[in-house]
Protein backbone atom coordinates (compact mmCIF):
# COMPACT_ATOMS: atom_id res chain seq x y z
CA UNK A 1 0.00 0.00 0.00
CA UNK A 2 2.83 2.40 0.80
CA UNK A 3 4.37 1.73 -2.60
CA UNK A 4 1.11 2.72 -4.31
CA UNK A 5 1.12 6.02 -2.44
CA UNK A 6 4.74 6.64 -3.46
CA UNK A 7 3.90 5.92 -7.10
CA UNK A 8 0.89 8.23 -6.96
CA UNK A 9 2.96 11.06 -5.46
CA UNK A 10 5.73 10.60 -8.03
CA UNK A 11 3.25 10.58 -10.89
CA UNK A 12 1.31 13.66 -9.77
CA UNK A 13 4.08 15.54 -7.97
CA UNK A 14 3.76 18.76 -9.99
CA UNK A 15 -0.04 18.83 -9.61
CA UNK A 16 0.20 18.23 -5.87
CA UNK A 17 2.73 21.05 -5.46
CA UNK A 18 0.56 23.40 -7.54
CA UNK A 19 -2.52 22.56 -5.44
CA UNK A 20 -0.63 23.16 -2.18
CA UNK A 21 0.72 26.49 -3.46
CA UNK A 22 -2.71 27.73 -4.58
CA UNK A 23 -4.26 26.59 -1.29
CA UNK A 24 -1.61 28.36 0.80
CA UNK A 25 -1.93 31.58 -1.21
CA UNK A 26 -5.72 31.54 -0.78
CA UNK A 27 -5.37 30.86 2.94
CA UNK A 28 -2.87 33.70 3.39
CA UNK A 29 -5.07 36.10 1.41
CA UNK A 30 -8.04 35.31 3.61
CA UNK A 31 -5.97 35.69 6.78
CA UNK A 32 -4.54 39.07 5.74
CA UNK A 33 -7.99 40.34 4.76
CA UNK A 34 -9.49 39.15 8.03
CA UNK A 35 -6.71 40.72 10.11
CA UNK A 36 -6.82 44.03 8.26
CA UNK A 37 -10.60 44.23 8.76
CA UNK A 38 -10.22 43.50 12.47
CA UNK A 39 -7.53 46.18 12.92
CA UNK A 40 -9.56 48.97 11.34
CA UNK A 41 -10.84 51.47 13.86
CA UNK A 42 -14.43 51.82 12.79
CA UNK A 43 -16.88 54.09 14.51
CA UNK A 44 -20.28 52.49 14.99
CA UNK A 45 -23.10 53.89 12.92
CA UNK A 46 -25.47 55.93 15.07
CA UNK A 47 -28.91 56.81 13.76
CA UNK A 48 -30.38 60.05 15.08
CA UNK A 49 -33.87 61.24 14.44
CA UNK A 50 -34.06 64.90 13.48
CA UNK A 51 -37.07 66.78 14.77
CA UNK A 52 -38.18 69.65 12.57
CA UNK A 53 -39.88 72.72 14.16
CA UNK A 54 -42.74 71.71 16.37
Verbal overview:
The structure is a single chain. This protein has 54 residues and is mostly helical. It has one domain. Helices cover 69% and strands 0% of the residues. It contains 2 helices and no strands. It starts with a helix and ends in a 15-residue tail after the last helix. The mean pLDDT is 90.
Kindly state the number of beta strands. Answer: 0
Helix content: 55-70%
- Give the helix/strand class: mainly alpha
Query: Roughly how many Å apart are the termini?
Result: 85 Å
**Whole-number tally of structural domains:** 1
State the low-pLDDT regions, or none: none
How do the SSEs run, as a string of H and E?
Answer: HH
Shape: rod-shaped
Secondary structure tally, helices = 2
Question: Per DSSP, what share of the residues sits in E-state strands of 2 or more residues?
Answer: under 5%
Largest sheet: none
Overall average residue pLDDT: 90
Radius of gyration: 26 Å
Q: TL;DR?
A:
69% of the residues lie in helices and 0% in strands.
Descriptive key words:
54 residues; mainly alpha; 2 helices
Amino acid sequence: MLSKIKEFVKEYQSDIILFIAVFLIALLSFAFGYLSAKMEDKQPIIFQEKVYGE
